Amino acid sequence: MVVGAALAAAGAALAAWRRTHRSSSAPGGPTLVRGRTSRNVMVARTAARIGRGYAADSARQIFADASRRQELQAQRQLRTATEVAETLGSMKGALMKLGQLASYLDAGMPQPVRDALSTLQQDAPSMAPELAAAVIEEDLGMAPDALFETWDPVPIAAASIGQVHRAITLDGVAVAVKVQYPGVDQAIGADLDNTAALLALASMVFPGLDAKPLVKELQARLTDELDYRLEAESQRRFAEAFAGHPFIHIPAVRTDLSSGRVLTSELVTGARYDDLADWSQGERDLAGETIFRFVFGCLYRLHGFNGDPHPGNYLFHGGGRVTFLDFGLVKWFEPADVAMLARMVDTIVLQRDPHAFRQAVEAAGFLKPAPSLTDDQVVRYLSHYYQLVLEPGATTCTPEYASETIRRFFDASDEVVKHANVPATFVILQRINLGLYAVLAGLRATADWRRIAEEIWPWVAAPPSTELGRSDAAWRARARD
C-alpha cells in the first residue's frame, strides 16, 4: 500500500524533490531522508527498480525449464526483498516499521521475502559511530568514551528509531545503550503528517471505521516512541511489577545515563527468536506460554499493554524464562476500558450468549449498530479472535491460524467488517491480532490456553494449571505477603 501510494504521486513528487531534497549523512552510515516528499520518491524509486527486475526475470523465465524458472523466481524474491529491506532500513522511521511488521505476520509470504525483511527486526543498517557518539554527548554532556568505562562503537542491534550499543558503566555494570537516530523525529513526522492520506487508507480498509480519532491515536502513540524518557518510565513500571519474577524479566533502567534520545538499561544476553528453531518443541511451548501470560497478565492485572510484540523484542533463556525488551509503544488503560474487554470475553467464552456478546462489542465501540446483522453473524465473524480460548484442551497456535486472523481482519467484503470499527482507545491492542498470534504461531506453541487464560482473568482467578502457573502463583503470594 505504501509503495502503491508512492508510485501514484511519484511524477509530481520528483520535481519537488529536486528543489527541496533534504538529508543528513555521515561517512560509513546510511542517508536518512526526512521530508515526506523525498521519502515518497525514495519508495517509488525502489518500486520502479523492483518492477524493472521483475520484467527482466519474467523474460528470462520464458526460455527456462521448470527448475530454472523456480530458481529465477527465488533469486528475484531474494533480491527484491533485500533491496526493500535496505531501503526501509536506510529510511528508518514508520516506513521501516511496516517492513518489520511484514517480516513475521503472514505465513503465506514467500520465505526468501520473510528472511530478508526479518533483518529489519534487529539487524537493519546502522548509523556511523560518530553520529551515535554525538547524540550521547549532546544529551548527556560527555562523550561515550568518558561517560562509560568501556564503550563499544559497533551496535549490537539497529531498528526503526534507534540502535543499541554495549557499554560498561564507571561503576562496573554491563549495560545496553539505545541511541536514537538523529533526525528520525522528522522522518516519522513526514510519514505521519499526511492525515488525509491516512484517513483515506483507513476508510478503504474498514468502510465503517470512525477514522479520525483512530489516526490521531496512532499518531500520538508513534510520536511517544520518540521520547525515550516516556519509554524509560514505562520500562520502570513493568520492571517494578515483575521484580523477582521466576520467569519474566524486564531489564532495569539506568536513569542517570538516560535522556530523551538515550536509554541505558541492564545488558541481558540470551537466545533470539530465530534461535528457537533449534530448540525442542517443549521449550518453544514454554516460551510461548510465558509470552501469552505476560501480554494478557499485563492487560488484565496492570492495565498496560506493550504494543510492539515483534520477534526482535524477546530474549530466551530456557525453561520458559524470557526477557522482554523495548517499551516505547505502551498503552495504559483505564479500569473501565479493561472492564469492557472483560465483558466481551465473558459473554462469548464463558456465557456463550450471542446477544450479550453483541451488546458488549457495540458498547465497547468495535461494532456500529446494524439491524441488518444477526447476532449469529457477529459471533461467527468475531469468535475467530477468541479461538485459542473458546474450548479447554491443548491447542497449537499455527501459522495458518495467524494468517487467517490477518486476512479476516482486513476482509472488507465481510458484512460484519462493513460495520466494524476500531476504537481509538483500543487500536494498539490490534497488535495482538496482528503480531502476538504470529509470534506464537512461529513457535507453533501448544498449551491449554483456555485454562491459562482463566488463571489470568481476574473475574475467574482459576487455580494454576501448569508448572509455570504454579511458579507464578507462588511468586504472587510472596509479593502479597
Explain the layout of strands and helices:
Layout: H1 2-20, E1 23-24, E2 32-33, H2 36-62, H3 66-91, H4 93-102, H5 111-117, H6 129-140, H7 144-147, E3 150-151, E4 157-158, E5 162-168, E6 174-180, H8 184-192, H9 195-205, H10 211-224, H11 228-241, E7 248-249, E8 262-266, H12 281-302, E9 304-306, E10 314-316, E11 322-324, E12 330-332, H13 335-350, H14 354-364, H15 375-382, H16 387-390, E13 395-396, H17 399-409, H18 430-443, E14 446-447, H19 449-456, H20 467-480
Parallel strand pairs: 7-11
Antiparallel strand pairs: 1-2, 3-5, 4-5, 5-6, 6-8, 9-12, 10-11, 13-14
Summarize the structure in words.
There is one protein chain. The protein has 481 residues and is of the alpha+beta class. The chain folds into three domains: 2-121, no CATH class; 125-158 and 161-184 and 225-267, Phosphorylase Kinase, domain 1, CATH 3.30.200; 331-480, no CATH class. It has helices at residues 2-20, 36-62, 66-91, 93-102, 111-117, 129-140, 144-147, 184-192, 195-205, 211-224, 228-241, 281-302, 335-350, 354-364, 375-382, 387-390, 399-409, 430-443, 449-456, 467-480, and strands at 23-24, 32-33, 150-151, 157-158, 162-168, 174-180, 248-249, 262-266, 304-306, 314-316, 322-324, 330-332, 395-396, 446-447. The longest helix has 27 residues, at 36-62. The radius of gyration is 23 Å and the shape is globular. 37% of the residues are buried.
